[in-house]
Write a structure and sequence with these properties.
Number of helices: 10
GO cellular component, one term: cytoplasm
Number of strands: 15
CATH topology of the largest domain: Rossmann fold
Organism: Phenylobacterium hankyongense
Order of helices and strands: EEEHHEEEEEHHHEHHHEEHEHEEE
Bound molecules: adenosine-5'-triphosphate
Strand content: 15-25%
Subcellular location: Cytoplasm
Shape: globular
CATH architecture of the largest domain: 3-Layer(aba) Sandwich
Strand order of the largest sheet: 2-1-4-5-6-7
Domain AAA+ ATPase: 25-375
CATH class of the largest domain: Alpha Beta
CATH superfamily of the largest domain: P-loop containing nucleotide triphosphate hydrolases
Largest sheet: 6 strands, antiparallel
GO molecular function: ATP binding; single-stranded DNA binding
């Protein structure tokens, strides 16, 4: 295990911050302050040290600071020092010009592809947007689960991108018609290859998460029974060879051309699957559980993935971003969450409006007050 922590964070024109700097010890961090103070904005800044659109799924223009009346977000930057086993790495990201289509990622001041971030930092997060995860459509759950897969297998994101692009192109050909069958064959081959890899990675992560949840046993978080409902993930879970999944998916796509053209969307493939979660003790689907139980079920999944990644030999251990999680938990679960974070030796960032939520973290975490006057480290010893 590589012990990884973010020890310095600098923001320029990011969301509500003109400039801000935080120097951190590597211990868990709790951020307290009133609504709208900028706590989530800080977590979001950290989340940009993974490839993608950050924990709010925002566009690049949205995150650039905008004063009232300004139409466009400014150019912005966030920089971090990551310490791993005593070695420091400097990461930076942002856009150099307002309205830029892509963000630049820098590693030790050199521009690198965003994928390189995963070599230095892995993250798992839980935000209030995920509170309705079990009540939303399958797409939200797939995205949530894919994030967990991605934290363990960074190549998963690339496979999903190839798949989405080929899927869009195939649908354009089918709906614009008449489609060139040779070009369709080529796109379907690409879809089948990327789709089979996605299905395998999802099935592998699901099995590992279920193992982790089962072996961790008695905890104050509800045990979950997980499954992936998609045909391709199920095939992978049953141990099918990847070549067989790929071949079957290619055949299914070729056979579905007319049907997909009529529907205006592809009706089969790993973009259709869902994550099913059952509250094991109650034997009830998560959607039928209370709000607090749902939150605890999701938190348990996130913690299980964090625990797995914390044990991984060859990858940096993860940073946990838990936005407004503490306030949803009763005191016993909150204390258990803090104990787990400490036992896993992870740097977690937690937010809340009241300092008393973090009483049980006194002496073992760093507190930061976030308010209109800026950021201030609290005395938590
Ligand atoms: N691009 C932007 N430019 C300037 N300010 C922004 C921008 N985007 C968001 N904000 C401001 O940031 C503030 C929200 O910050 P944030 O979501 O981090 O608050 P919070 O401390 O997490 O609050 P809560 O406790 O309510 O969740 C809002 O006042 C919002 O107007």
């Amino acid at each position: 295990m590589t012990s990884t922590a973010l020890t310095r964070l600098t923001l320029s024109d990011f969301r509500s911050y003109a400039t801000a700097e935080l120097v951190l010890s590597g211990a868990p961090v709790f951020l307290v302050g009133p609504n709208g103070a900028g706590k989530t904005n800080l977590l979001e800044a950290v989340s940009f040290f993974t490839p993608g659109r950050g924990l709010r799924g925002a566009s690049l223009a949205e995150v650039g600071r905008r004063l009232p009346g300004e139409a466009q977000g400014r150019a912005w930057a966030v920089a971090a020092v990551i310490s791993a086993d005593g070695e420091e790495t400097r990461l930076g990201t942002g856009v150099e010009q307002a309205g830029a289509a892509r963000r630049t990622v820098r590693l030790e001041a050199e521009t690198v592809p965003p994928g390189r971030l995963a070599e230095h930092l892995r993250q798992v997060w839980l935000t209030p947007a995920q509170d309705r995860l079990f009540l939303e459509g399958a797409g939200e759950r797939r995205r949530f689960f894919d994030r967990l897969v991605f934290a363990a297998e960074p190549r998963h994101a690339a496979h999903a991108q190839v798949y989405d692009k080929a899927n869009r192109e195939r649908m354009r050909l089918l709906t614009d018609g008449p489609a060139d069958p040779v070009w369709l064959d080529a796109l379907e081959a690409r879809l089948a290859e990327a789709g089979a890899l996605m299905a395998e990675a999802r099935a592998r992560t699901l099995a590992a998460l279920q193992d982790e949840i089962d072996t961790r046993g008695e905890r104050p978080f509800p045990q979950a029974q997980l499954s992936l409902t998609g045909e391709w993930e199920q095939m992978a879970a049953e141990g099918a060879e990847i070549a067989d999944i790929e071949a079957k998916l290619a055949r299914a796509l070729a056979a579905a051309r007319d049907r997909d053209a009529a529907a205006g969307r592809a009706l089969t493939g790993p973009h259709r699957g869902d994550l099913a979660v059952i509250h094991a003790e109650k034997d009830r689907p998560a959607a039928e559980c209370s709000t607090g139980e749902q939150k605890a079920l999701i938190l348990n999944l996130v913690l299980a993935q964090a625990a797995r990644l914390a044990r991984a030999e060859s990858a940096p251990n993860p940073i946990l971003l838990l936005d407004e999680v503490a306030a949803h938990l009763d005191r016993r679960r909150r204390a258990a969450l803090f104990d787990e974070i400490e036992a896993l030796g992870l740097q977690a960032f937690l937010t809340g409006t009241d300092e008393h939520l973090f009483e049980d973290l006194q002496g073992r975490a760093q507190g930061v007050r976030v308010d209109a006057s800026g950021l201030a480290i609290l005395d938590t010893q």
